[in-house]
């Protein structure tokens, strides 16, 4: 469900049926579910933006009412029940996340490492991240782009193993669920980022024009699929190194947040979708949110390096939600 301020509603109404629809829309403002049909006039679904205008100060002023409101949404029966299991991080686990590096040992590991480093260097340069001031806008567009890519490997690897199991009429040894969980987890990172900022049409056109979403994601899907057929070990190592980079990126973001270098995000309450998904406190801010996302990335790092270390027919050591 979307919650928007009244002054952002549509232009003056022309027809009676539109008026009725707008009444329904104003009723929707009372609800807190994350997704909604945004525009009753256009009928097009749009993402919500529940939390971006709300700060901790707002919550204090509203004397706990909003806490109750969010808590009720978190506890709403059936909410997010359809999602795959995933870790819920404790404070100790969040504190324990560190930037680590798994040194490449064999040739295949070195190839994966250099491919990842080359990708990062190019992306940093062309996205303007290696020069100029890091702003909220730069950060969110970077996160949105990276998470659209990050959701690919788990899904492609899971599909590849699923088809392999069918083709060879052999068991999978429990890998598929972990890979699907990773894919969904990455998609939830993207959904959360979209709650923080809807990319403008200009941004979407820009990335389309720059062949960085549709084209490059499609190319990446196909390249990753073919690479996975040739060498699952290379692919999991490559993702392991990408995740190392993701931990570095989110650590940098947390540093910027703690240094008050991103004033527009100071004391902002995390999007409701993320409060539900990671079971955060109702007044969790962006630091809490990105700590949880960083812990996910550190987990993917461990999972993928482990899957690269073992043979494709070995038992997956990670159980559901682990
Ligand atoms: Fe991610
Ligand atoms: Fe990740």
From TrEMBL:
One Pfam family hit: AOX
GO BP terms, alphabetized: alternative respiration
Residues annotated for Fe cation 1 binding in this entry: 147, 186, 189, 297
Cellular component terms (Gene Ontology): mitochondrial inner membrane; mitochondrion
Main location as per UniProt: mitochondrion
Gene Ontology molecular functions: alternative oxidase activity; metal ion binding
Binding note for cofactor: Binds 2 iron ions per subunit.
Cofactor entry: Fe cation
Parts of the chain that traverse the membrane: 139-159
Annotated binding of Fe cation 2, by residue: 186, 243, 297, 300
Keywords: Electron transport, Iron, Membrane, Metal-binding, Mitochondrion, Mitochondrion inner membrane, Oxidoreductase, Respiratory chain, Transit peptide, Transmembrane, Transmembrane helix, Transport
Subcellular location: Mitochondrion inner membrane
The family this protein is said to belong to: Belongs to the alternative oxidase family.
Protein role: Catalyzes cyanide-resistant oxygen consumption. May increase respiration when the cytochrome respiratory pathway is restricted, or in response to low temperatures.
The protein, known as: Alternative oxidase
Native organism taxonomy: Eukaryota, Metazoa, Echinodermata, Eleutherozoa, Echinozoa
């Amino acid at each position: 469900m979307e919650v928007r301020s009244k002054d952002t509603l549509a232009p003056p109404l022309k027809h009676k049926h539109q008026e009725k629809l707008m009444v329904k829309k104003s009723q929707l403002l009372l609800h807190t579910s994350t997704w909604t049909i945004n525009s009753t006039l256009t009928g097009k679904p749009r993402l919500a933006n529940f939390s971006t205008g709300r700060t901790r100060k707002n919550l204090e002023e509203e004397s706990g009412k909003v806490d109750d409101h969010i808590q009720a949404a978190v506890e709403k029966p059936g909410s997010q029940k359809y999602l795959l299991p995933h870790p819920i991080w404790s404070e100790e686990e969040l504190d324990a996340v560190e930037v680590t590096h798994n040194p490449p040992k064999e040739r295949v590991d070195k190839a994966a490492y250099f491919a990842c480093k080359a990708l990062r260097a190019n992306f940093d340069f062309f996205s303007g991240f290696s020069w100029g001031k890091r702003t909220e806008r730069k950060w969110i567009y970077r996160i949105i782009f990276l998470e659209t890519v990050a959701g690919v490997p788990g899904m492609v690897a899971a599909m590849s193993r699923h088809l392999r199991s069918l083709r060879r009429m052999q068991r999978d040894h429990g890998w598929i669920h972990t890979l699907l969980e990773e894919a969904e987890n990455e998609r939830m990172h993207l959904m959360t980022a979209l709650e923080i900022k809807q990319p403008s049409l200009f941004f979407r056109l820009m990335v389309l024009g720059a062949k960085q979403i549709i084209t490059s994601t499609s190319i990446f899907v196909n390249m990753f699929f073919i690479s996975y057929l040739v060498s699952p070990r290379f692919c999991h190592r490559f993702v392991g190194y990408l995740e190392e980079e993701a931990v570095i990126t989110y650590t940098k973001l947390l540093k910027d947040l703690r240094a008050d270098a991103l004033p527009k995000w100071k004391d902002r309450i995390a999007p409701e979708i993320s409060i539900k998904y990671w079971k955060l406190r109702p007044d969790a801010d962006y630091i809490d949110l990105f700590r949880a996302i960083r812990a996910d990335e550190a987990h993917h790092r461990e999972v993928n390096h482990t899957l690269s270390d073992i043979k494709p027919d070995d038992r997956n050591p990670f159980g559901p939600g682990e």
